[in-house]
Structure formats: C-alpha cells, structure tokens
Write a structure and sequence with these properties.
By secondary structure, this protein is of the alpha/beta class. The protein has helices at about 5-10, 45-55, 70-80, 110-115, 130-140, 185-200, 255, 265-295, 330-335, 360-365, 380-385, 510-525, and strands at about 15-20, 55-60, 60-65, 120-125, 145-150, 160, 170, 210-215, 305-310, 315, 325, 335-340, 350, 355, 395-400, 405, 450, 460-465, 470-475, 490-495. A hairpin with a 4-residue loop joins strand 18 (about 460-465) and strand 19.
C-alpha cells in the first residue's frame, strides 16, 4: 500500500496537489546579518510563514541536486539525478535532456494527467521555456497552460496558452491596458491561476476532478525587477557580511582562489540586488494570499497538499564569489522546503536530510500514483505522516559548468534614471576589464569569476547523520571521472567549519579519502531503485 493510502482513506476524494517553485531562493542569508540565519530570504515573507510554516512542516536540511536552473528543474519534474538526465555528450538545456519533463510516463505533469487530474501549469518550467511548453501541449501531458514565454522579463507581454480541447495560441498582453490591471509577471501568474481555479469551481463538486497545480514565479532571480508598488520596500536593507564574505580562499578550486578582493562597488551592487530580491518575494506572498483564499473558497483546503520550494540557493560574495549559485557550498545547495496538507503536522521543523529528486515521488505518493521505475529519488511521505520511512544519511550533488561568467554577467534592477552605485556592475577591480584570465595565484586574478568551464565542474557527497556532517567534492572539468581526470578535491567538516573556509582534504587520512571516493562513485552510478 502507498503511504498516502492511509491518508486518502480519510479524505472525501483524491487530494489536490499544489507545487510552488521559486527561482534562486536562499535559506541562509538575512538582512545585514553577520552569520547565517534560520530562514534567509524567507524572513521577508510573513504570508509564507503564516500559511505554510505555521500550518505545515519546514524541512531544515533540504538540498538541491544541481544548483543551477534547467538541470535542477528537470530533476524536480522527473525525480532523477543529474547523471540520469544529462544529454548525450552533455548536449541540452544546460547539459541536460529536458525533454524528459514532457515525456509521457516520465514527467510529473503527464503522470498526474494520466491519473485523471486536471493539470495546470503557470510560470517558468525550464529555461527552454517555449519548446518545453509546446512539448507539454503536444504530448497532452497537461490539461492547461498559461505561462510567460520570456520569463526573464518580469514585465513581459507574451503568454503561452493551451487548453484541454487542444486549442493553443500565444497571447500578447496590451501594455497600456493589460488584463488584470498590471503586466507584472508574478501578479499575472496569480490572476491567471485564480481564473483557472474559478473554471474548476464551476463544475459541481461531486463531478469535479482533483487538480495538480504548478506555480513557477521567477522571483527572486535576476534581474529581480520588483512590482511598481514594491519598488521602495526595504530602503535600508543590505546583503549580509558573514564570516566567509570576501575571504581569501587559497584551498578552494582555482577560479575561486584566484578571485581578487571584492570592492565597495561590488558590495553596493550586492546590496541593491539583495533589496530587489526581497521586494520580488513580496509579490510571491501576494500570490500565496490569493491562492489560499481561493482554495478555501472552493472548499478544498482540507483536501489539498501544498509544497513550497526553490530550484537552488544563492550567495552574496561568500568566498569572494559575487552573486550566483553553481557551487557545492551550503549557500547554493541548501534550499527552502515547506509542506502543508491533510495529516501533516503543523508548525513543525524536521531536520531529516532530504533532496530535490525526492519531491516527485512524494507528490505522487500523496495522490496514490505509482512512481516510474527509473525515478532516483524516494518518497518522504512516511516521514511526514509518522509512518514507515528509512532516513537518508547522504545526498549526491552534481554540477557541470555551463559557461565562464563574471560578476557583471546579468543585470541588476535599479530605479530608472537613478544612480544607486558609483559605477556600473564591475567585471573586476578594473571595472570594464576586457580580457579575463583565470590564474593560479591566490587573489591574483583580474576578474571576479562566477563560474568557470575550466575549474567548476564537480560532483559532491553531502553527508549528514548522527556522527558526521561532511561535504566531499571532486572536480573534473572533462566530466570523465577516472583516476587520472580528477583535478582537485575539497572536504569540509561542517560541525567545526560552518562557513566552509577550511578544506581538510589534504590533512585527512588515506582511508577516509578512499572511503569517501568509493561512496561517491557508487552513488554517482546509481539508477532508480538502486539509488540510496
């Protein structure tokens, strides 16, 4: 019997499931903080705290499988690890074959639709957005799509529409007289979602199908453009200066250890971006407010599971790496997860180790839908319901560098015609450095590297149990992973080094090194039920 069978037996009908996936949301970095904080950016969301945390379970040790957008999202929607969705020779959306997301019998949307659910998609799905939306429509993996095509533009005008009768078209919103009163993306997503739920509510309750609702607000991702009515929020807020902020890192991989000290101009732009991110999350809170009000109005609150999470975390100058993800450190891989629904405890924080590929099998478990054979993650529904559950002690994390980029790689929103910082986003100490070189000199580089195809492809093992709190990392820019191709190692004991500033690999015993490598290799080669 599925774990959810115990809960479903007490429900009046198959449960609805709502998945909310934000973009780049951290859990550690608070306003002007001098240490990691308990909630990070979630501290800016009182509605999230009231409607989800106080009414559900927050997972405090939840990790992403790959800390960058398209791979992470593909892993979420298939329940697979990176090495099992990687495209042939690394070709694909940030190296992954994202077509698995709309593959019948594989992706989460099709599995819910095939089980008789109304399946609605609102917001960013994967970075190859329009082909992905068309793939979902062509495969009839969903019953409804109403999503922005250019999700990077918070004021974008084009929306992809698909209906259960097969009708599809691209809608262009009138910029001067927009439907729902504003072109702002998060508000549009909220209103379009309510419009769809309104249509479901018109069906007599006894004839109503359950629904699977996916919401993908782009907040708080670059450029983090706030809604016009939130542009002035948090005027005095600033990015945290944690103990690992702007520190020299001589024992980290090359592109990090060569980064020069961050300047005041860098910090100025980090502070602006920090404020912008929190401003965009205010609109996510607004979305949550109207969503929960609508589900309550439908009479479905006691029959609906809600999951709130993000595709990866973020950093603000920790280890001299500007504003980014892509790295194996806690800032980037530790992310939000809150679950609310029938039978789930309220106001509880659980510390069990969980990972992003576990989400799909858990949501399927809620609905009593069998998981496909090649799903690598495993359901933690038993943990939530207090029934059978085998704890994890380790988690695999993988990343293949997508490009070499620098601090100025993406725009930061600032008020029009206002100079918020005394110069543009700097590429390095020389603000407009034309020729960046990755050098093997600690702090001696001429540019602020954010990612590097030469030294930021890695696989890692995050170990967290009653005796160990470790992170072991191997680097191989060729993605070959044989005895001669591994170029660098890192190892951190987070019980004694919370900020990951002391790489203890070279000081560790050969027995420990061999054991960690062997465990990582076994995990890296796993598929489906063979995965830990």
């Amino acid at each position: 019997m599925y774990v959810s069978g115990l809960v479903m037996a007490a429900l009046a009908a198959p449960p609805n499931v709502v998945m909310i996936l934000t973009d780049d949301q951290d859990t550690l970095l608070g306003n002007k903080a001098t240490s990691y904080t308990e909630l990070g950016s979630m501290a800016s969301q009182p509605v999230l705290q009231k409607l989800m945390m106080e009414e559900g379970v927050r997972m405090s040790n939840y990790f992403v499988q790959t800390p960058v957008c398209c791979p992470s999202r593909t892993e979420y929607f298939t329940g697979r690890y990176y090495h099992n969705v990687r495209g042939n020779n690394g070709v694909g959306c940030m190296h992954v074959n994202s077509t698995h997301v709309h593959e019948p019998g594989v992706g989460i949307f099709d599995l819910f639709t095939a089980a008789g659910y109304e399946t609605g998609v609102f917001g960013k799905v994967t970075n190859d957005q329009q082909p992905q939306l068309e793939g979902l429509a062509n495969s009839k993996s969903v019953t409804h799509i109403n999503s922005p095509i250019d999700f990077n533009d918070f004021n974008g005008l084009t929306w992809y529409r698909y209906f259960s009768n097969g009708t599809r078209y691209v809608e262009t919103v009138n910029k001067t007289d927009p439907v729902f009163g504003s072109i702002y993306q998060t508000s549009q997503i909220a209103n379009r979602t309510i419009e769809w739920l309104d249509s479901l509510q018109k069906v007599p309750k006894e004839d109503r199908k359950p629904f699977f609702l996916y919401l993908g607000p782009h907040a708080p991702h670059f450029p983090a453009t706030p809604a016009p009515w939130y542009e002035d929020l948090y005027p005095d807020f600033a990015a945290p200066v944690t103990p690992n902020y702007n520190v020299s890192s001589p024992d980290k991989t090359r592109h990090i250890r060569q980064n020069p000290p961050l300047t005041d101009l860098v910090k100025c732009w980090e502070d602006q971006h920090f404020r912008d991110r929190w401003r965009t999350l205010a609109s996510v809170d607004d979305l949550l407010t109207v969503l929960f009000n609508k589900v309550e109005d439908m009479g479905e609150m006691d029959n609906t599971f809600f999951v709130y999470t993000s595709d990866h975390g973020y950093k603000f100058g920790q280890w001299r790496v500007g504003v980014s993800k892509e790295h194996p450190y806690e800032t980037d891989i530790r992310i939000p997860l809150i679950v609310r629904g029938p039978g789930i405890p309220k106001g509880v924080v659980m510390k069990d180790l969980l990972g992003s590929s576990d989400i799909m099998p858990t949501l399927l478990d809620f609905a009593g839908i069998p998981k496909p054979e090649k799903v690598d993650g495993r359901s933690f529904a038993g943990l939530l319901f207090g029934s059978s559950y085998k704890p994890r002690g380790k988690w695999l994390i993988e990343y293949e560098a997508t490009e070499t980029i620098f601090f100025d790689h993406a725009p930061v929103w600032s008020p029009p015609n206002v100079s918020v910082c005394p110069g543009p986003l700097p590429r390095g100490p020389n603000i407009t450095e034309p020729n960046c070189h990755e050098v093997d000199i600690v702090g001696g580089g001429n540019c602020y590297f954010i990612d590097s195809t030469a030294s930021n492809t890695w696989r890692a093992l995050r170990i967290l149990n009653t005796t160990h709190n470790l992170q072991y990392i191997e680097y191989d820019h060729t993605w070959t992973w044989n005895s001669t191709s591994i170029e660098f190692h890192e190892l951190y004991d987070l019980n004694n080094d919370e900020y990951q500033m002391n790489n203890i690999y070279n000081a560790s015993t050969s027995q420990l090194k061999e054991a960690l490598h062997s465990e990582l290799v076994d995990y890296y080669n796993c598929v489906g039920n063979n995965c830990p």
